[in-house]
Amino acid sequence: MSFNDNDFLSRQGWDEFFESIFKDPFLSTLTPARVIGEERELYRLQTQPDQSFWGAITGKLQHRARGRADYPAVGDWVLIDHPPGADRAVIHAVCPRKTVMQRQQVASTAADVQIIASNIDTIFIATSLNDDFNVRRLHRYMTVAFSSGARPVILLTKADLLSDGGASVITEVHAEFPGTGVYTLSMNDFAQARFFEKYLGPGQTVVVVGSSGVGKSTLVNYLIGHEVLKTQGIREDDSKGRHTTTSRGLFPTRFEGWIIDTPGMRELSMVDHEEGLHAQFSEIEELIGQCRFSDCQHHGEPGCAIQRGLDEGLISPDRWASYLKLAAEIRHALRKQDRSLYAEDRKLWKKLTLAGRARGENKRRIK
């Protein structure tokens, strides 16, 4: 099948990238479908505007899977066999992903990951302008977004809560995340927002992420054009939300693109998000490279470029603290995947401990 033969698949995002895998003689006999929902070990698949059905992976595909990332996820393209009259389709292959947003599996001590969404072009990071607004949380989401290969866009929801409509916060967020699209939204003014068409045209897929209570479900219902998702208010005692969406789903929008809604995230744990960390904190990592000693711990050592940057206002203490926390989480996650990194860290801490003891002994001798 050629992607030009099926206009619907093309409008869903099927293109030459996925078409290239059809060179395999066996795979070329299968039908492309997009995963639009997931329920336990079953996947909701779509091949036509009015044709969706459940499917399950083959035993062979399940046997080869080494982790959760090898299973289908919402947004994936899969190759299926769906005989006429069959209740379920059979998923033979998961197509390579152009982009993927993922996090560490929640409540897991293993190195496995959870895919939030795949084959997305844009990530709408929604955060509310209520008392729960937090720039450090945005650092976390942006690190994950930059690692995905998709374009991050920040949506400041419930702007009507502020007297200036969020203008002051936009200035702050623009300064913290230069080059990233930042928009304000008020619940009753979605129709006045003119930026949706830019990101949700035919063939484009957007995922909406954020904490519970920031208005994701209300926004997604507007973009879809009718109420599909239930909405709930926030808790008045702490301005935090209640979970409304409990599973991921891919929906067509009024702008002819596609939207993936996700459950509110109370945790967004790091995995192999080094690329996103480098992209977001490039100025900090540039300063680290200027330290006099390659093993500088940035705790008052002579020639520490980070300390100089903090003293001169080149980086803020909050931004430095965010970097340290995220870098430590990523390193911890990578150690789970690679035992050699764990051994390397143990050697480094042993070296630092011995050096600290030596400094202490020298001070005692001087006294």
TrEMBL record:
Binding-site positions, Zn(2+): 291, 296, 298, 304
Alphabetized SUPFAM superfamilies for the sequence: P-loop containing nucleoside triphosphate hydrolases
Cofactor or coenzyme needed: Zn(2+)
Location of the EngC GTPase domain: 118-266
GO biological process, one term: ribosomal small subunit biogenesis
EC number(s) on file: 3.6.1.-
Top EC class of this enzyme: hydrolase
Gene Ontology CC: cytoplasm
Note on cofactor: Binds 1 zinc ion per subunit.
Subcellular location(s) of the protein: Cytoplasm
InterPro entries linked: G_CP_dom, P-loop_NTPase, Ribosome_biogen_GTPase_RsgA, RsgA_GTPase_dom
Entry GO MF terms: GTP binding; GTPase activity; metal ion binding; rRNA binding
Main location: cytoplasm
Segments forming domain CP-type G: 110-268
UniProt keyword terms in alphabetical order: Cytoplasm, GTP-binding, Hydrolase, Metal-binding, Nucleotide-binding, Ribosome biogenesis, RNA-binding, rRNA-binding, Zinc
Binding positions for GTP per the UniProt entry: 157-160, 210-218
Protein family (similarity comment): Belongs to the TRAFAC class YlqF/YawG GTPase family. RsgA subfamily.
HAMAP family associated with the record: GTPase_RsgA
Oligomeric form and interacting partners: Monomer. Associates with 30S ribosomal subunit, binds 16S rRNA.
Function of the molecule: One of several proteins that assist in the late maturation steps of the functional core of the 30S ribosomal subunit. Helps release RbfA from mature subunits. May play a role in the assembly of ribosomal proteins into the subunit. Circularly permuted GTPase that catalyzes slow GTP hydrolysis, GTPase activity is stimulated by the 30S ribosomal subunit.
The name this protein goes by in its record: Small ribosomal subunit biogenesis GTPase RsgA
Gene from which this protein is expressed: rsgA
